[in-house]
Amino acid sequence: MPSEPTRRVALLTGGTGGLAHATAELFAADGMTVVIADLDPVRAHKVAESLPGSGHRGIGMDVSDEASVRSAFDGVERDLGPVGVLGCFAGLLSTGAVPGRVLLTDLSLHEWEGVNAVNARGTFLCIREMARRRAAVPVAHGRIITIASLAGQQGGLAAGAAYSASKGAVLALTKVCARELASQAITVNAIAPGPIDTQMLRSTVPAERAGEKYEHVQGIPLGRVGLPREIAAAVAWLASVDAGYITGATIDVNGGLYMR
Asked: Which residues are annotated as catalytic?
């Protein structure tokens, strides 16, 4: 049986982004050791240093690269111990210099593969790496939380085919992994954010409406875009010991845009 660790180790990919940063702050406040993984190791280190408590790390990782993912896990587990919580936040709306919706007829293969490499392949590689390691070295209360999107459920108002399809893949992958990892007592759940106040969302607003957070606020029942800390709160709950009987679920945090 896995032993109860003194401090749980949480690894957050895309860790310098707004959603991951907000989650890292909650995890650190809850007493976890947080590893911020990002393409930019300098930024990752700065975010880790800003967290409450001590012992947090910032590392470089390219989630789309198998060797990079393996190397990152090697370093984290060598220095801090087994990863008990994995948050897959790394995501890409577009490979373009000015992200935004790309119409299907204008969508290049390069764009399709670039977005899916980060969002779908990256999530798969990170989950697979954790699953392999936890099969060898189990942990108590193992948790994996993926970040999908409302776009993956509805097809996307502000996002095109590449992003929407990649997030749909994350939703399906989450369910498959939840089934396969249940025997290891690792839960796997997805958060599906709607419009959240991030740079990614603001980048979808046309230049003539620059300064707005989102084009379709009038369609949100709650009448506003969400805040990063509202996503972080949902992730923190799924990572908690009390959420141990929830797996394969998709938690909608969208202001009522999608109800089911």
From this structure: 163
d(CA 185, CA 183): 5
Q: What is the mean pLDDT of residues 216-224?
A: 83
User: What is the DSSP-derived secondary structure letter of residue 158?
Assistant: S
- Which of 3-7, 67-71, 256-260 holds the top average pLDDT? 67-71
CA-nearest of 28, 140, 194 to 204 is 194
Q: How far apart are CA 242 and CA 168, in angstroms?
A: 27
* pLDDT mean across residues, the chain: 91
Helix axes 228-239, 18-29, angle to 10 degrees: 50
What are the residues facing 88 on neighbouring strands? 13, 146
| 3-class SS of residue 26 | helix
CATH class entry, domain 9-253: alpha beta
Using one digit for the tens of pLDDT, what is the confidence trace for 98-130?
A: 556 778 898 999 999 999 999 999 999 999 999
Q: Which residues contact 150 (CB under 8 A, 6 or more apart)?
A: 156, 192, 193, 194, 195, 252, 254, 257, 258
Cβ neighbours for 128, distance < 8 A, ≥ 6 positions apart: none
Enter the tokens of residue 181.
């990892």
Enumerate the domain spans of the chain. Answer: 9-253
Q: What is the pLDDT of residue 219?
A: 82
Burial degree of 183 (CB within 10 A; 0-12, 13-18, 19+): exposed
Under DSSP, is residue 109 helix (H, G, I), strand (E, B) or coil? helix
Find the helix or strand (DSSP H, E) in which 250 lies. strand 250-253
With H, G, I as helix, E, B as strand and everything else as coil, classify residue 35: strand
Q: List, in sequence order, every beta strand (DSSP E) within 50-101.
A: 57-60, 83-88
pLDDT tens for each residue of 30-60: 999 999 999 999 999 999 999 999 999 999 9
